[in-house]
Specification:
By secondary structure, this protein is α/β, with parallel strands linked by helices. The protein is about 40% helix and about 15% strand. The chain has a six-stranded parallel sheet with strand order 2-1-3-4-5-11, with helices on both faces.
Length: about 325
């Protein structure tokens, strides 16, 4: 091509504001410049998938991953279903890499991606994760620290408010590890475990708190892994004549902004989910762009956010009948 012709072509491109077709480019390069994040929906009434949705923590995690991916010139696509190999294979064809969330202790999707040598990072971790790239919150440590915080304040009867029981039965990694953290703390401090699970809703938390007090009227504290239900539990306590934190202490885990859902503000372990997704997205983008990885497996510890809902255990108190 003659130099004058080339110059006229580039001048026309500039004047027309032409942008190359991303679809055409992907055909040439074999790259879509997209990253998928697979985040299966949770919740729903009694596990009903039709009413399931993404919770606040999951949305924050997606937003953090999106910020990282976009800053590197890629687009992030959200997927909520890809449980079998056929669906996962189709997803892999559409994206250059994958962020895989909500994994089970034994997860065939991780095994498949490893076998295919497909670029991915797990948000969480399986039980046997040798060679698997992952970033996770140390949930055992998080819940253990909740109980230690209450024990330091002389509490000896502490209930654990868990997420839906089906998550534990399905061996979702975070669910199993959080409960193990509570059980380990009870063993360490000589406490009798009391575990209640409920759906992720304020109303279910409120009703469950009433059931807890009916069955265990001498409890003095609640440690919550179910942050939304913990708000309902908090509002149930004055309905039973209990003041927080004078008569009953509550500690949860959540995002700083969500702590303002109650007055006074909740005492909590901070939600490290956004940091997990940020680090995982950075790790994946480094692989896609051929950059050096500083670490391929990262465990992040949660820290206490001081609040006003925990206090020294009362010497004695009365619980009124259920309204």
């Amino acid at each position: 091509m003659r130099d004058e012709t080339r110059a006229r072509i580039f001048q026309a491109i500039a004047e027309l504001g032409y942008q190359p077709s991303s679809a055409a480019q992907s055909l040439v390069t074999g790259r879509s410049h997209t990253v998928g994040i697979l985040f299966p929906l949770e919740g729903g009434d009694q596990g009903d998938s039709r009413t399931a949705s993404l919770n606040t923590i999951q949305l924050e995690m997606i937003m953090e991953a999106n910020a990282v991916v976009q800053s590197r010139g890629y687009a992030l696509h959200l997927y909520t279903q890809a449980e079998d190999e056929v669906a996962l294979k189709a997803l892999c064809r559409m994206c250059d890499g994958l962020l895989l969330a909500t994994v089970r202790l034994e997860d065939p999707r991780v095994e498949y991606l490893m076998q295919q040598d497909y670029p991915f990072v797990v948000l969480g971790r399986t039980e046997h994760a040798e060679g698997v790239p992952w970033v996770d919150t140390d949930f055992e440590h998080m819940i253990y620290q909740q109980i230690a915080h209450l024990v330091e304040r002389k509490h000896r009867e502490i209930v654990f408010l868990d997420r839906p029981e089906r998550l534990f039965r399905e061996h979702l990694g975070y669910s199993v590890r959080a409960r193990h953290g509570y059980e380990a703390a009870c063993k360490r401090f000589g406490l009798q475990p009391v575990i209640y699970a409920c759906d992720v809703s304020v109303e279910d938390g409120r009703m469950t708190m009433h059931k807890i007090l009916d069955a265990h009227p001498t409890l003095t504290a609640l440690a919550a892994f179910n942050d939304v239900a913990a708000v309902g539990a908090y509002y149930a306590l004055p309905e039973r004549g209990l003041k927080v934190p004078q008569d009953f202490s509550v500690i949860t885990f959540t995002s700083p902004g969500f702590l303002r859902a109650t007055t006074p503000n909740m005492t909590a372990m901070n939600n490290t989910g956004p940091l997990v997704s940020q680090r995982a997205a950075e790790m994946l983008m480094a692989r896609l762009l051929g950059e050096k990885l500083t670490a391929s497996q990262v465990l992040i510890k949660s820290e206490l956010i001081p609040g006003e809902t925990t206090n020294v255990a009362p010497a004695q108190r009365m619980v009124s009948a259920r309204p």
